[in-house]
Write the structure tokens for this entry.
Amino acid sequence: MKCRVCRGPAVIDVRRQNANYCRDHFLRMCRDQVAKAIDEFDMLHPGERVLVAVSGGKDSLACWHLLRELGYDADGFVIGLGIGEYSDASTAYARTFAEERGLTLHYCNLRDEHGFDVPTAAKATKRVPCSACGLSKRHLFDAAAREHGYDVVATGHNLDDEAAVLFGNVLRWQTEYLGRQLPVLPGGNGFPRKIKPLVRLGEREMAAYCVLTGIDYIVEECPMAAGNKHLGYKEALNAIEAQSPGSKLDFYFGFLKRASARFEGESGGEPVTLQPCERCGSPTPAAVCAFCKLSERSADCEPVALRERR
Amino acid sequence: MKCRVCRGPAVIDVRRQNANYCRDHFLRMCRDQVAKAIDEFDMLHPGERVLVAVSGGKDSLACWHLLRELGYDADGFVIGLGIGEYSDASTAYARTFAEERGLTLHYCNLRDEHGFDVPTAAKATKRVPCSACGLSKRHLFDAAAREHGYDVVATGHNLDDEAAVLFGNVLRWQTEYLGRQLPVLPGGNGFPRKIKPLVRLGEREMAAYCVLTGIDYIVEECPMAAGNKHLGYKEALNAIEAQSPGSKLDFYFGFLKRASARFEGESGGEPVTLQPCERCGSPTPAAVCAFCKLSERSADCEPVALRERR
């Protein structure tokens, strides 16, 4: 197995590219793919400050690392979500990564600063934990970007993530979501731009990137996400990819090129007027924002111990 | 396990309906679903003559049976495709079905009447056999409908088939195919209308329908189709369906309701002008139709023995 670029011994194969790479050329390929995605979708402009939403997993740490390697002014932000030992360990990986490299990492603890955690919010709302978790993360990333003056929030969603979300949206033809599933969401009205620089790279490549650059990350998946539909969609697409390498890339980028625009403007109706939330000041179409409502509902609920989903 | 309708002992469960049925109410449910599909998509009108494209498998025989049960004037048409013993056995099942019920079955043998068979055509065109097979079947169904005065050709495509084809088209965002993937294709210009009356019923239900009505059918899949991508798509969707019963129905009917129209008119450009094929007289945009070209290419090729795809 020889490197496609230098013909030296290869350490990894990338089947959808029908290519093998040595360590150095694999890392360069990853950087090139991120640079290509940033350019292709006009994700970042010179001088902009980036806040990377860090979980402590391979994708967000690699995303942060890659943005710095490409010369961007990128800091990190990690949230203590209160999902038992999993959250403690995740946060520790993020802290170690930042300390070893002398990088700025912002931190927010959901229970200390907002009086609840994800398991309690899931119980209070009687919905899947991923729902309260996603809402909280989006709110806190936006608020941190406003507070600290970042133009852009970057997340570590990779090609496997985006293809699986797309598959879920297509299976139910959720046209509103399909109209919004883009690698860049524009900012404005008090919201930072959202970007996904890893959309051209798969899960396996991100794990390899971390191993080959010496990034320690939390390997476990979130225990509350076990058994969710998203993982089922990933498995189904993995079977397709094994049969025809490149299927995921074609699926996601074919959507962006030939279908996405057909679903634009689906939320429709009048443009929404935003006003500051009465409680926290975040821009919201209602009097109180969804995060503050979640926080209030959860405050009435006894803190619950972590339970895995079955 | 009790029948949803009469509370008598049930013989089958239909998970996506969260229901069990006794024999009689299962058969009624199948008839009702076919009647609903015919009505919903305006497939058939009173007095129209239907030609059922019969393969000898469960779907096409059940389709024929169901259309007769619902009172339609439906005859059958089977093609000897020359796929070794598989074709002989398939044709025999179709013949037995028709004879036992005193029904009219038209027959055409590809090698005897057109000088080639599917394995030879696959070799001559250096493409997957399903390609030459599909082209030949579409041509011969259309020609038989014209010759014998049928208004409509019905095929036995069931929900699993349509969902898998849709999945394949969506995976590659083949917008032209997405614009045409409908349960009814209008007729005109010398072509019969094409209808798929089984789109509301799954593969497993069609097998049960045959068993419970005493229809003998060929159980084996076509040996030349083994390993094709379509089967991989079916497997992936089966995994999703097992996790969330009803997913396939939502996927296919959600597409028809909320997405299909967005892909209409994709073939675009000027309306195509059709003229009679110089060889066979079928309407075609070219001087010689695709079937006659296939027949000519295959005539130059030594007949080949059946080979399974790997």
Observations:
- Strands of chain A lie at 12-14, 19-21, 49-54, 73-80, 105-109, 152-154, 184-185, 193-195, 275-276, 283-284.
- The interface with chain B takes residues 170-173, 175, 229, 232-233, 235-237, 239-240, 243-244, 247, 250-251, 254-255, 257-259, 262-263 of chain A (CB under 8 Å).
